[in-house]
Description:
The protein has helices spanning 24-27, 31-34, 39-42, 47-66, 121-128, 131-137, 141-158, 165-168, and strands at residues 3-10, 13-19, 74-76, 82-84, 90-96, 99-105, 112-116, 169-177, 180-189, 192-203, 206-211. The longest helix has 20 residues, at 47-66. It has eight helices and eleven strands. By secondary structure, the chain is an alpha+beta fold. Helix 5 (121-128) crosses helix 7 (141-158) and helix 6 crosses helix 7 (141-158).
Amino acid sequence: MPLQHIKYISPQGILGVWRLTEKESYFVPYLDALVDDITNLETITHESRRTEWIAGRWLVKLLANYMNLSFTGIKTDTFNKPHLIAENAFISISHAEPYVVAILNTKKLCGIDVEKIRQKLIPLSTKFLNNNELETAAGDLSKLAILWGAKEALYKLYGRKSLIFKTNLSIENFNYENDLGSFTGHLIINDKNETYTMKAGKFNDHVLVYTE
C-alpha cells in the first residue's frame, strides 16, 4: 500500500493519501489495534469495501504517528462517524478506488473526501447543487467532482444525518486553477451558518477536497 502523499495543513492538521494495493488479509492481524468494535465492518459484504474501511483506519494511525500523538484505536458513534478513542484529535476518512484518504486535526472538526471524476455527476448535479453552484461548475466534470466532494467533506465533518446537500450545504468564493481549488464551505442548520475554509486538488482522474 504505497503512501503517496502526506501534507501538513497547519501546525495542528495533517492529511494523507494512500493508494490501496493490499488485500483485507494484510490488515487482519492489526484489527484489534485499530478499532474497539468490528460490528460495522461485519456489515460490509463487499471485499474491496471492507479493505478500504480497514485501510482508512490504518492511515489515521499513521497520521497520528506523524503528529506524535498516542493512538489507542478508533471508535464509531451512533451516526457512524469515526472518532479517536484517545480523543486527542478530530478525524475524517474517505475512499474512492484505488485511493484511501484521511485527515487529522488536533484543534477542530475536520472533513475530507476523495471523488473519482465521472460522467454520472452531470445528471446528478441538479440534485446536490444550488443554482449558484451549478453556474460555477458550468458542466465542467472536475468542478462538479470538487463541489460534490466539498459537500461530502462538510457532511463528514458534521457527522450526523438529515442534511440536504442542496440547501444545508453551500459553496461560495470558488476558485479553481491549474488543478488546485480554494473556496468557502457553509454548513447551514436552522438559523446557524458555520463557515469553513476549504481546499481541493486534482490528481489523475480523482479530486481531493478537505477543510483547513
